[in-house]
Amino acid sequence: MAGPTTAERGTRKPGGRPPGGRDRKGPAPRRRRLPAPRLLASLLAAAVLTGGGLWVLYGSSWVRLERVEVSGTRVLTPREVELAAGVPLGGPLVSVDLEGIEGRLRDRLARIDSVEAERSWPHGVELRVTERKPVLLMRKGARYVEVDAKGVRFATVDKAPEAVPLAELTDNQQPGARRFGGQRLLREAALAVSRLPAPIVRDLLSVQVISYDSLTLKLTRDREVMWGSSEDGELKARALGALMKAAPRAGRYDVSVPTAPAASAS
Predict the structure, then answer these.
(1) Are 200 and 165 in contact (CB under 8 A)?
(2) Would you give the end-to-end CA distance of the chain in angstroms?
(3) CA distance 18 to 103
(4) Quick one: which of 83, 89, 132, 265 has the fewest CB in 10 Å?
């Protein structure tokens, strides 16, 4: 069989492809590009959607702030909370500063222990309030100062709430008051009361605080409880409950050392 001609040998390179031939792998695939008009249309559509969404949130009346809903109040009224919150009605709901609302309420209404502000789409803001509860009272002339379980004085009232005992602190000349401060002693008294079961709190008339580790509970029927410090409060409360059941006619109970409680006639 005849081999390639001289002309063919002269025009083909070793390892190369014959003239007019194609590489076996074929040409590299080209990336398909979106035609310029279609690309422009897609960009315009995205811009319209984005701009439309922003207009709905900030420019339209569909999601404007129109009402404030308040829940959880006991002594405060919803109107008091709403006024103190200073919620800007009429503006875009999305731009309402919820943290600012919460901060204003805590600063302006000391009776509020905690508050949560949330958007209520499409037209409202909801304020969920938790008020402080008094566990102690302090006399202030003819009025009373309410104290919560953390020892915070949060309100002054004309009439003493029912079943809330008085706190009787030593004056500032006593060693305990000088060393720990009146506010520290008040916190100790509030902490002690917060550990007591409800039946004992109902009989509790006052808490006498001489020093950090010398608290005395005054109960109805001329009974008293030597409580000591506020440490081991839950253990002391259990010991007191058991002791009062075992010696219901005793006049004096001592749980300052809860592992060795004692009761006596006076």
Answers:
(1) no
(2) 136
(3) 83
(4) 265
Strand partners, 167: 207
Q: Is the pTM of this model over 0.85?
A: no
Cβ-contact 240, 229 below 8 angstroms: no
Of 177, 137, 129, 175, the closest CA to residue 154 belongs to 137
| Count of residues making up the chain | 266
DSSP, residue by residue, 154-200: EEEESSPPTT-PEEEEPPTTSHHHHHH-HHHHHHHHHHHHHTS-HHH
H or E stretch at 253 = strand 252-254
pLDDT tens sequence across 98-144: 999 999 999 999 999 999 999 998 999 999 999 999 999 999 999 99
